[in-house]
Design brief:
321 residues; alpha/beta; six-stranded antiparallel beta sheet; 18 strands
C-alpha cells in the first residue's frame, strides 16, 4: 500500500456518459504533479459516505506531457463495494488523496507499430497511449468498442482522429469489432487490450487463435479472473523470507500477503487481487502456483511472484523479502 499519499483537488468534473464521470485533478499549490508514462494508474484513497478507507486503482487517461493535471474517468459500478459511486459523488473543489503513478502497462519500446483495442471503460489507459503515439509520430491503429454511442466516452476527441475506428454493439454487423480487425500476426506490432473481462478474453483468444504470440499482447484488467476464494484455496505451505529468515505457514484460505502483513512484515501491496503488480517479489526457491493476471510467462519463468493471489506447489517457497 502507498505510504506516500499526494493531496489533489478536483478542478473540473463532467459526465462523459450516463455512467462515466471524468475528473481533472490538480495539486493544491499549483505545482507540477509527478511525471507518468502512458498506461499508468494511481491508487485513490476514498473517505466519503459508504466508502471510507477504500483504496481503488484508476488509470490516468490525460496526455502524459501535461503535468499540471491528472485526468481520471470512472465507470459507476452498482455491484461494487462503493468505490466508483464514491468517485461519482465528487464535485469541483473536493480534495482527493492519490498515490504516485505506477505502470505495468506501458508502450512497448520494441514495437514499430501499435494496435490499441479498448472496450468500454478500458479506453482510459489506451487514450493516454494514443496521446503519446500521436505526438511522437508513431504508427498506430486504435479500435474503441462500446455498447452504443451513448455509452462511449471521449467521442468528440476520438472521432476527430483518423486512426481511430469506432465499433458499437448496436451498429451494423460490418461495423462491429471482429477478430479480423486484428489483422495477421506481425513481428513488429504490439497489441494492447483493456476493458471488461469477457471482452478482453475474446480479443486475446482471437489474437492467439490468429497466431499472435503471447509476448506481443499487452493487457491490463480492471477485475481479476479468479475471485478471492480461488486465489487462497489450496493446501498449506511455508513461506521463508531470505532476508529476515522468518518462516510463516500459509493455510488453506489464506494468502501469502495477508499472513505476512499480519506478522508485521513490510511487504508491498496495493490491489490485493493479482491485477496491479505492486506486490510482486522474486522467488528464490520452491515451485510457485501462479494465480495472478498480471505477470507474463517470461516474468513467471524469471521467478517473479504475486504474494496477494498466488500460492505454492512445493512445501516451502523462499521469497526475496
Amino acid at each position: 500500500m502507498s505510504n506516500e499519499w499526494l493531496d489533489t483537488i478536483v478542478i473540473a468534473r463532467r459526465d462523459a456518459t450516463a455512467r462515466i464521470v471524468v475528473l481533472d485533478l490538480i495539486s493544491p499549490d499549483g505545482a507540477e504533479l509527478p511525471e507518468f508514462a502512458a498506461g499508468a494508474h494511481v491508487d485513490v484513497l476514498l473517505d466519503g459516505e459508504g466508502c471510507a478507507g477504500l483504496v481503488r486503482q484508476y488509470s490516468l487517461c490525460g496526455p502524459p506531457h501535461d503535468r499540471t493535471r491528472y485526468q481520471l474517468a470512472v465507470l459507476a459500478e452498482t455491484a461494487s463495494r462503493g468505490g466508483s459511486l464514491g468517485m461519482h459523488r465528487l464535485r469541483a473543489g473536493d480534495r482527493l488523496r492519490i498515490s504516485r503513478p505506477r505502470n505495468r502497462f506501458g508502450i512497448s519500446d520494441r514495437a514499430r507499430r501499435h494496435l490499441l483495442v479498448a472496450g468500454g471503460i478500458g479506453i482510459t489507459p489506451l487514450l493516454a497511449m494514443a496521446h503519446v503515439l500521436q505526438v511522437t509520430g508513431a504508427e498506430y491503429e486504435f479500435h474503441y468498442c462500446a455498447r452504443s454511442r451513448a455509452d462511449a466516452a471521449f467521442l468528440d476527441e476520438l472521432e476527430r482522429n483518423p486512426r481511430v475506428r469506432m465499433h458499437f454493439d448496436d451498429g451494423p454487423d460490418d461495423q462491429r469489432f471482429s477478430a479480423g480487425d486484428l489483422g495477421p500476426p506481425d513481428p513488429d506490432t504490439a497489441v494492447y487490450v483493456c476493458g471488461p473481462g469477457g471482452f478482453m478474453d475474446f480479443v486475446i483468444a482471437s489474437a492467439q487463435g490468429a497466431g499472435w504470440p503471447a509476448e506481443a499482447i499487452y493487457k491490463e484488467r480492471f477485475a481479476p479472473v479468479l475471485d478471492a476464494e480461488a486465489h487462497t484455496a489450496g493446501g498449506a505451505f511455508t513461506v521463508r523470507l531470505a532476508k529476515s529468515g522468518g518462516e510463516y505457514e500459509i493455510k488453506d484460505g489464506e494468502s501469502v500477503l495477508d499472513v505476512l502483513l499480519a506478522e508485521g512484515v513490510d511487504a508491498p501491496y496495493s490491489c490485493q487481487q493479482g491485477i496491479c503488480g505492486e506486490c510482486i517479489v522474486r522467488v528464490l526457491a520452491g515451485e510457485p502456483d501462479h494465480r495472478d493476471d498480471v505477470l507474463t510467462d517470461r516474468e513467471r519463468a524469471d521467478g517473479l511472484f504475486t504474494t496477494c493471489s498466488s500460492r505454492a506447489l512445493s512445501p516451502i517457497l523462499e521469497l526475496d523479502l
